[in-house]
Amino acid sequence: MSSSERPRLVVGVSGASGAAYGLRVLDACRELSVESHLIFSRAAALTLAQETDLSVADVQARADVVHKVGDVGASLASGSFPTLGMIVAPCSVRTMSEIATGVTSSLLTRAADVTLKERRPLVLMVRETPLHLGHLRTMVRLAEMGAVIAPPMPAFYAKPTSLEEMVDQSVGRALDLFGLSWRPVKRWGQDVGPLRAEEG
To answer: Which of 15, 69, 188, 189 has the fewest CB atoms in 10 Å of its CB?
Structure first.
């Protein structure tokens, strides 16, 4: 990207539980002056309706650019379109598995494949538990390909007082992987801790 262009981040939202993660990634991009390119899967629309009172149009309004999930000829399908990388938040097991095979059937997984081949950061906020051996092997394969597996885990040391704070901490730590520092993140040694062990 030229110095005059805003940095771009591809934001994929799959149908896994945790629509709030994708929403807050979009909000963070707006606050950080990062141009967000949203790909919202069909299954994500179902999860959104289950977990929130928002419509798909409400989510799209939070993004700078919206791409149709079936538009495999979009700019994001080419490595010549420069971005900081891509985050899938939340990432379903199906989406994760499709990316791992390289046999992509939508713009969401095609854009992830492009991100990997261009050696850009691909962060997958995988939402599934418990994990069987097939899931774990798929994650290993993706890690070997260069993806970062970043399940959203609560950081209790940050002493969250609400679900919103827990979501923001996970989102902010994922954005750290792109070199983006988001205000809500509580950092060890700055905002919390470190604690000194008692001298015995």
So the answer is: 189
